Structure of DUF4302 domain-containing protein:
Amino acid sequence: MKKITYILMSLCCLTLYSCGMTEPWKDWENEGNLGEDRLRPSEVKRVLCGADGWKMTYEDVTFYFRFGEEGTADSDSDEKILENSVKTDYKLDFQGGEIVLLTLSNGGMMRYLSDNQESTFVITGYSDTQITAKGQTYGKPMTLVTVTDAEMKQAKDKKEQFIIAQNKKQAIEKLKSELGNGELRSANNAFYAHYSIACNDDVWKIKISHLDGKVLKHTEYAMTLTTSDDVKAVLDIEGLTVNGEAVKAIYFDYATSGLTTDNPAVKVTLNKSSDIVDRYNSSWKTHIVDRDYICDKFAGMPAQVEFDDRSPRHIVVCPGSNDSGQWHYIFFILQATADVQAGRVHFEDRGVEYLFGNYGDDAGLVRQIEAVDNFLNFNYAQSGFWMLEDGEYLYALSTDSDEWFRMKQ
């Protein structure tokens, strides 16, 4: 076996060129200047792509890799990690004549390891059928050997049966927890309704929350759960129609843990309010409340109310001008969290800031405006609310009342 040293680097190392380092792929044009003993990116790509696939046993788990000419890699494992396969990008480069870099953008399937995760390998030798290496972080030995398509398919089929068995066993708990709320949307992703599933004493119900014009409605439907099928669990629903489309059943696929309906015009998405909260706490852009499309209880709000992009975040109320004609703004400080399992957003009232003007008890005066007071109380409610996207708008929907509003960046 030819002795060569190169490193599979993590993505963060590769991206250092953006901080002033040379763009790594530019060195490829000079790889012909390396000595004959040195490993070239083109040789590594030939070895990786020349085999049907590669397998490696590490931390008592067997991992499988398949490298494509187009720069993508499929990564999977045996049944000891019951997660679906991962597709990732890979890049090849070298530093000088001694190190070749092979970068997997997210570490592939090894990211699911509880201990000794590695995304960086130091390879000590290679041939067309075997690669020997050690992990860069923990230094544990690794050996990759080639496998055939038939071997990889056999391993994949075996793992799929384990996943199906596990998901079938866990179907009820998953439907009560992480799959218990989400959205019903059109085939082209237009929002139809929010759904939430509940089970008490083996009695299943689904609550559908949707906007009928400007009225938010919540309706419960009885369901029956059947898990006797070997492919999917079936939630039969009595009398549900969404946006004119009948939905008689929701299916839980044992192989993918995904949800579908019996009507191809209505799809299930597991969008979570927590995803929006993550954005709200990081890359949020100021959104303005749409006063023309809002529940009646909030009608009559002042000229502008916005959720700003300052840190900390605020609800900014612009009540107009005072007796002296001076415009002013009230900043109600918010802290946002999310209940992932219940799918709800929670805003905590953290006080008031006067960043522009202070003309007496501005906050108190604003709270005397009934529409604004109702709006703030809705956002501060301990029960939280659902938040979702539909095109260019964000909607906040009460979980049990007819209160709601929308906003736009």
